[in-house]
Amino acid sequence: MPIIITRGNNVFGRYQYPEKLISKFILQLLNNKKCTIHGEGKSIRNFVYIDDVVSAFETILIKGQIGSIYNIGTENEYSVIEVTKKLIELIKNNKNYDNYIEYVKDRIWNDSRYAITNHKLKELGWKEKYTFKEGLKLTIDWYKNNMNYWD
């Protein structure tokens, strides 16, 4: 069978079910609730905006080799606390972070970091089009305009 495998992690953007970090925290902040951070928020993740994921799939479908594996990711590695602070700044226009953060018990299975390399994808000519901050702003705007989408 002609198969190409893709692997990615921490995709964010519009329409994302609000159980994931960025979508969950955006809605918490928009609803004047505190962001619930597991542990100390030191876990590091690689984040990629949905439109960049779509362009990665297009690139792989057109230029990828059958039987190959392509990792879809960016250089956007941030800790949970860093992401939370960025969201607070963008949504609340405030740097008094403690007003918007509640620390909760860490999950036992919470990995401190998992990262992937996207060098094979870049060799196909793919490039990230959206900075992390641009992706966050677009995602925040979508959630602001679609507050009741998940009701």
Question: Architecture in CATH?
Answer: 3-Layer(aba) Sandwich
Overall form? globular
The low-confidence runs, each spanning 5 or more residues with pLDDT under 50, are none
**SSE arrangement, N to C:** EEHEEEHEEHEHH
Tally of helical segments: 5
- Helical content stands at 25-40%
Largest beta-sheet details: 2 strands, parallel
Q: Specify the CATH homologous superfamily.
A: NAD(P)-binding Rossmann-like Domain
Instruction: Give the count of structural domains.
Output: 1
Cα end-to-end separation:
41 Å
Radius of gyration: 17 Å
Structural category is alpha/beta
Percentage of residues in strands: 15-25%
Strand elements, count: 8
CATH topology title: Rossmann fold
Task: Please give the order of strands in the largest beta sheet.
Answer: 1-6
Oligomer kind: single chain
Arithmetic mean pLDDT: 93
Question: What is the CATH C level class, in words?
Answer: Alpha Beta
Structural description of this entry:
The protein is of the alpha/beta class and about 150 residues long. It has a single domain, classed as Rossmann fold. The protein is about 35% helix and about 15% strand. Helix 1 runs parallel beside helix 3, helix 1 crosses helix 5 and helix 3 crosses helix 5. It is globular, with a radius of gyration of 17 Å. The chain starts with a strand and ends in a 6-residue tail after the last helix.
Which structural traits does this protein have?
alpha/beta; Rossmann fold; two-stranded parallel ribbon; two-stranded parallel sheet; 17% strand
